[in-house]
């Protein structure tokens, strides 16, 4: 529960007690204490985003190829009618 209204952009701090970090395997999880973990997570997220973009680009190419094939078939069909 917040003791006062929280506005967008406000920075929040939490106190988990003096023995909080004793129970955490690997110690403090914050970015400044655990830079390697955060860098690995950011790299993983970046890779996921790049794979998603590549999939979207591949899908666009497939759609364009299918449209081109349909257009070619349509033109052949019209040519055969005349």
Describe what this molecule looks like in 3D.
This protein is mostly helical and 82 residues long. The chain has one domain (21-81). Helix content is 57%, strand content 0%. The chain is built from 1 helix and no strands.
Global Rg: 28 Å
* Low-pLDDT segments, ≥5 res: none
Main pleated-sheet profile: none
Mean pLDDT score: 86
The portion of residues assigned to helices is: 55-70%
The secondary structure category is mainly alpha
N-to-C span: 78 Å
E-strand count: 0
Give the count of helical stretches. 1
For this entry, give a set of tags.
57% helix; 82 residues; single chain; mainly alpha
What does this entry show, briefly?
The protein has about 80 residues and is an all-alpha fold. It has one domain.
List the helices and strands and how they pair.
Elements: H1 35-81
């Amino acid at each position: 529960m917040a003791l006062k209204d929280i506005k967008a952009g406000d920075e929040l701090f939490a106190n988990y007690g003096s023995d909080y970090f004793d129970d955490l395997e690997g110690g403090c999880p914050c970015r400044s204490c655990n830079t390697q973990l955060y860098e690995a997570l950011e790299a993983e997220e970046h890779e996921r985003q790049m794979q998603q973009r590549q999939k979207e680009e591949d899908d666009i190419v497939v759609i364009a190829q299918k449209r081109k094939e349909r257009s070619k078939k349509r033109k052949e069909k019209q040519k055969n009618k005349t």
